[in-house]
Amino acid sequence: MVSASEAFAAVSALTRRETGMIYDEGKEYLVEARLQPLATKAGCSFADYVTKILADPIERAKAMDALTINETSWFRDNAPYQAFTDVMLPDLLQARAATRRLRIWSAASSSGQEAYSIAMLLDQHLPPGWTSEIVASDYSPTMLDRVRAGRYSQVEMNRGLPATLLVKYFSRVGSEWEVAPHLRDMVTLRSQNLTAPFTGLGTFDLILLRNVLIYFEKDVRHDILRRMLPMLNPGGYFLIGSSETTLDSPPALAAAWQREQIGRVQVHRVAPALADRPTAPIAASLTGA
Ligand SMILES: C[S@@+](CC[C@H](N)C(=O)[O-])C[C@H]1O[C@@H](n2cnc3c(N)ncnc32)[C@H](O)[C@@H]1O
């Protein structure tokens, strides 16, 4: 039997180790609210449940999943999507004219609104003869199941989806809305912990890593930012959340990410000095930067 504060400290350390996410003191209520239903299901108290997840990897995975924060919406913040349609996409269409293929990574996709928002824009603006792939990845298996299902409640649909796009791309199934099969076919799912190596993903023309770095400690953030560099194709774009920055990185890493302004949206690209090099040594050259 552990005390409530010992239980919180243990969960906090475990979450930091498994997912990189920080649950600081003061978040006890949140941790308990997220884990209590699992404890009840397992037939034990909150404190005993914490002891259980320390020993049982299957229960631990469920607890970590339950502790992810999955807040999202359609066309979140709007301006990045406008900048994609107006500037990034036309630029990429020129840059990739030889292959006529675009690859996009929604790297903390939550329930899929980010990936499907991009899919709607590609469906409308990608010229005939082009192909695309959107990879949606997340740590949470529950969220990946949701992307796969492509089903959303009315409350979720009300968050940022214009009525014209609802009519065009969704059909009603009972009390929910289901995304059109051709949009779902544009999205490939991947389980990817951002703190683990990025293997077998290929490289991308646009990476969205939005509203997730805020949950990590500085060293975890910097490690992810470093490992994202070789994941971008030359001339590709990297989007982080509006409250996130690369500027607090160590100088070599901050310089490796070149910041560009598109209207009021800041986008990142690999600085030309690094982009000219073969990709593999990029992250290695910044190790410990
Ligand atoms: C707040 S949501 C952001 C969703 C979307 N990118 C947006 O901006 O609307 C953060 C997502 O990051 C995921 N996440 C948290 N830690 C992660 C990790 N270590 N690896 C991969 N995904 C993680 C969570 O499961 C959650 O779905």
UniProtKB/TrEMBL annotation:
Signal peptide: none annotated. Transmembrane segments: none annotated. SMART domains: MeTrc. Its EC number is 2.1.1.80. Pfam families: CheR (PF01739), CheR_N (PF03705). Residues 1-245 form the CheR-type methyltransferase domain. GO terms for biological process: methylation. It catalyses: L-glutamyl-[protein] + S-adenosyl-L-methionine = [protein]-L-glutamate 5-O-methyl ester + S-adenosyl-L-homocysteine. Keywords: Methyltransferase, S-adenosyl-L-methionine, Transferase. One of its GO terms (molecular function) is protein-glutamate O-methyltransferase activity. This is protein-glutamate O-methyltransferase.
